[in-house]
Amino acid sequence: MELDERKAKILKSIIRNYLETGEPVGSRTISKDDELNLSSATIRNEMADLEEMGLIMQPHTSAGRIPTDKGYRLYVDELMEEERRESKEERNMLIERVDKLETLLTNLAKMLAANTNYTTLVSAPQTSKNKLRFLQLSKVDENSVLAVIMLEGNMVKNTIIKTESAIDEQIVLKLNLLLNSFLTGLSIEDINLGLMTKLKAEAGEYSTVVEELLGAISQMLIDSAPQIYTSGATNIFKYPELTEGEKASELINAFEEKEALNELVTTSMQNKNENEIQIYIGDESPVQSMKDCSVVTASYELGEGMTGVIGIVGPKRMDYEKVVGTLRDLMHQLDTIYKNK
């Protein structure tokens, strides 16, 4: 059975509302759907047609409509398949944005190293305090769900979540609606015990699944340290004072292991309100292996509170004027480039 676009959207809206509330759905409820933008009178006419087609029924006089078995079958076989295609396309677009950002930051690190002849690092924006814009769950198998999370600044995270209970497509659909209605606009820090209790109550028989999903999503965002992109580690060998003894190998290890770089990024982020650009000379450096270096860092912003760190590591006799000027230009360019995406 083929439906025109308007009837298909109305049927989907009826089924979604009924799955969420368990109550018959009236034309007034459907008219509030922003995707439709139709009057109640138009919706009533279309609902009458859907009823004649045997896709919805009116359980009581003057009540709203509920889906019939035939309506559910059409939804599962055709309309949900269309939604899955759209979701896959949307997910691919979101993941593509991540790839573009990674390419941008990698190229920035390389360009900085080439222009300054020093060693450089660029951290990806932090996400722990960013607000959630969109959450998409997709079934992988009966006990696995792919969660794609879009945060402010078009940052995307994804993870595979294992669930104890088996999950079918209809449960995934209901959970998508429920989680987005509760979590959109909130940061991970806003997801407290009270909110989780309310969410679980709304989820009813799926409360255990919701608890598992929330726990996995929160842990993923809290634990994920920002990715750090580096370049120019071999530039260290251009400066004799940095190659004495074990100095060079210690510096290169720091850039390869990156644990020490996370400490540098964290310190720079904490100090960003004091100065736009921080300069650490010798023993002022928060990283032990960089005590014979100068480290210049700057915080950049990609809009909506998405902040990361750009850093340049070189000898104490580095060209500070050039480095600071280069960082200021890059901060401005990166902000502009990303806002225009």
Order of helices and strands: HHHEEHEEEEHHHEHHEEEH
**Major sheet characteristics:** 5 strands, antiparallel
Q: End-to-end distance, in Å?
A: 41 Å
Give the CATH architecture of the largest domain: 2-Layer Sandwich
- What would the CATH topology of the largest domain be? Beta-Lactamase
Helical amount among residues, as a percent range? 40-55%
Strand order across the largest sheet: 7-3-10-9-8
**Parts with pLDDT < 50 across at least 5 consecutive residues:** none
Number of strands: 10
**Cα shape:** elongated
Average pLDDT taken over every residue: 80
Taking all Cα atoms into account, the compactness measure Rg is 27 Å
Q: What is the CATH C level class of the largest domain, in words?
A: Alpha Beta
Count helical runs: 10
Q: Which class of secondary structure composition applies to the elements?
A: alpha+beta
- What's the assembly state of these chains? single chain
Salient structural properties:
341 residues, alpha+beta, Arc Repressor Mutant, subunit A, Beta-Lactamase, Enolase-like, domain 1, 3 domains, five-stranded antiparallel beta sheet, three-stranded antiparallel beta sheet, 10 helices, elongated
